[in-house]
Write a structure and sequence with these properties.
Helix content: 55-70%
Order of helices and strands: HEHHEEHHHHH
Shape: globular
CATH superfamily of the largest domain: Winged helix-like DNA-binding domain superfamily/Winged helix DNA-binding domain
CATH architecture of the largest domain: Orthogonal Bundle
Radius of gyration: 16 Å
Number of strands: 3
Strand content: 5-15%
Number of domains: 2
Structural class: mainly alpha
Distance between the termini: 34 Å
Largest sheet: 3 strands, antiparallel
Number of helices: 8
CATH class of the largest domain: Mainly Alpha
């Protein structure tokens, strides 16, 4: 599956609407880590955690080609909500039929994240940062504690509080992405 398909199915799995680029980035990060059929270029280190230029490009292109509405919301920070257009819904429905097991797994990830943190980008960011740290260090994941994660986070330019680390670890455990002591 390519990035456009994953974006469409991720938004479709949340009743055809998702708020925030950061939340979409993080959900698709989880999807890409769980499913080897997802072909997305490697994520890079960024302020809010792992970041994919490819996901942002897909959101922009899908909006430009009328698969998505990009709805800006003003506030302290510019925030966008993404809603599938009629054309986007048709595309996503076709994909869901074509890739039922992938769509089911994407839906489970979105549902789990919605249940645990209401798709709030902050806990999603803490969880992706924690996973990214564990995946991109030379030490064994099974030997890591949350204090180790917090310590190593500074090497990536991130600061993670104890509460943030706990929230991220809870989400990762629920998604079966990691075991942390």
């Amino acid at each position: 599956m390519n990035v456009y398909e994953v974006v469409a199915l991720t938004i479709h799995s949340n009743k055809d609407i998702l708020g925030g680029r950061t939340a979409i980035q993080k959900l698709i990060y989880f999807v890409s880590q769980i499913n080897s059929n997802i072909k997305i270029k490697p994520y890079e280190n960024y302020f809010h955690g792992p970041f994919s230029r490819e996901v942002i490009s897909a959101l922009e292109a899908m909006s430009a080609f009328s698969y998505l509405y990009e709805i800006p919301h003003s506030g302290t920070y510019e925030k966008y909500e993404y809603k599938l257009t009629k054309k986007g819904i048709e595309y996503a429905c076709h994909l869901a039929k074509q890739h039922p097991s992938e769509f089911k797994r994407i839906s489970e990830i979105v549902e789990t994240c919605n249940e645990l943190c209401k798709l709030n980008p902050n806990p999603l960011s803490y969880a992706t940062k924690t996973h990214y740290i564990l995946k991109n260090t030379n030490e064994s994941q099974t030997d890591y504690t949350l204090n180790d994660v917090r310590r190593v986070a500074t090497d990536f330019g991130w600061e993670i509080s104890q509460n943030d680390a706990d929230a991220g670890a809870s989400l990762l455990k629920k998604l079966n992405l990691v075991k942390i002591s």
